[in-house]
Design goal:
The chain is of the alpha+beta class and about 170 residues long. The chain contains six helices and seven strands. It is about 25% helix and about 25% strand.
Length: about 170
C-alpha cells in the first residue's frame, strides 16, 4: 500500500473525517492541509495532539527512514486511544530502521508485552545509570497474569519509586 494511503488511514484514527491531505509550497512557507468531504483544513487549525500524531506518522511510515530514529516520549500529547496504534507503528518501523524510544507510559509498554526482550530498562543505582534488557523467558510466567506496563506501576505514571513487581528485577 502506498505510504500516503497508510498515512491517511492512520490519521483517520484521530480525525475520522479526513479523506486526504495536501502540501502547498508558497515561496518560503510550506503548508499542510487536511481534506475533508467539503473542506480543506489548514494544519494551523489542528490540535497539538493531532499535529504530533501527524509528525509521528510521517516519521514512522517513511519507507526509507534514516538508519537511526530517536524519539523521547512519543505518547505525550496523544489521545490515550492512539497509544496501541503508536506501539504498532513503532514495531513496524523497527523492521526498517533502528529505533530508540523513551517512555514512562505503561500503556505504551503494554503494546510490547509479547516481545519484552525489545525493552531496555534504565535505572539509576548508586550514582550511575544501568541498562538492562528484559528477558522473555524470565518474564513468561509473570506475563500470563500481568502486562509489561504493570512492571513498575509507580514509574509508569511518572512517580519515582523503587518498587518492582517483575521477577527479573532485584528488590
Amino acid at each position: 500500500m502506498p505510504t500516503k494511503r497508510l498515512l491517511v488511514e492512520a490519521l483517520q484514527q484521530c480525525f475520522p473525517g479526513i479523506t486526504d491531505f495536501s502540501v502547498q509550497i508558497d515561496s518560503a512557507t510550506v503548508q499542510i492541509f487536511l481534506e475533508e468531504a467539503r473542506w480543506s483544513l489548514p494544519a494551523t487549525r489542528l490540535s497539538d495532539g493531532t499535529m504530533r500524531w501527524l509528525a509521528l506518522l510521517a516519521l514512522l511510515l517513511d519507507p526509507k527512514p534514516p538508519p537511526l530514529i530517536v524519539i523521547e516520549e512519543p505518547e505525550l500529547g496523544l489521545h490515550p486511544d492512539l497509544i496501541r496504534s503508536l506501539g504498532e507503528l513503532l514495531r513496524r518501523a523497527s523492521e526498517r530502521t533502528q529505533l530508540i524510544v523513551t517512555t514512562h507510559s505503561g500503556a505504551l509498554l503494554d503494546t510490547f508485552s509479547d516481545t519484552p526482550d525489545v525493552v531496555l530498562v534504565c535505572e539509576r543505582e548508586q550514582g550511575s545509570t544501568s541498562m538492562r534488557r528484559l528477558e522473555r523467558d524470565v518474564l513468561a510466567d509473570w506475563l500470563k497474569d500481568y502486562s509489561l506496563g504493570s512492571t513498575r506501576p509507580g514509574c509508569a505514571s511518572g512517580a519515582r519509586t523503587r518498587r518492582r513487581c517483575s521477577p527479573s528485577w532485584r528488590d
